[in-house]
Automatic annotation (TrEMBL):
Taxonomic source organism: Prosthecodimorpha hirschii
Protein origin, superkingdom: Bacteria
InterPro entries for the chain: CENP-V/GFA (IPR006913), Mss4-like_sf (IPR011057)
Family of the protein in this entry: Belongs to the Gfa family.
Keywords, sorted A to Z: Lyase, Metal-binding, Zinc
A Gene Ontology molecular function term of the record: metal ion binding
Descriptive protein name: CENP-V/GFA domain-containing protein
Length: 144
């Protein structure tokens, strides 16, 4: 019997599962070789600017993440705390990598096929755009 909380067990993959994904044009492809964290929706200004709305991100330990095709991957240091990965050919927003944390966040919409994931919380809600309401019945935090 698993000791993981029911919501974690429901939304994460088994540790032997490999999930793949990539950008719109296929020039950047990746594999996540570990259970994915439930999705966090970030409404901070940087995430809104890079995604065009809010960013829906899952994450995986960096050592369990593999770029399988990265010729068109570009990184942009968006702050002292993080850098963002995107395809320089089609412009897809793919990754957010915090400095020194050993994890990489993956834009949930870039995963192939059904994910089985759901949003577990919204963060930086004080910065959300004024053109939408947050409808999910999950925690909505003003900051991180």
């Amino acid at each position: 019997m698993s000791t993981a909380p029911q919501s974690e067990a429901k939304h994460n993959l088994q540790s032997d599962d490999v999930r793949s994904g990539g950008c719109l044009c296929g020039a950047v492809r990746y594999e996540a070789k570990a259970p994915l964290r439930a999705v966090v929706a970030c409404h901070c200004v940087q995430c809104r600017k890079t995604s065009g709305h809010y960013a829906a991100m899952t994450s995986v330990p960096l050592e369990r993440f593999v770029l399988t095709h990265d010729d068109c991957l570009a990184w942009f240091r968006s702050s002292e705390k993080a850098e963002r990965g995107f395809c320089r050919l089609c412009g897809s927003n793919l990754f957010w990598k915090p400095a020194g944390e050993g994890r990489i966040s993956i834009t949930a919409g870039t995963l192939d096929g059904p994910t089985g994931l759901c949003i577990e919380r919204h963060i930086y809600c004080d910065y959300a755009g004024d053109y939408y309401a947050i409808a999910e019945a999950v925690p909505q935090l003003p900051e991180h």
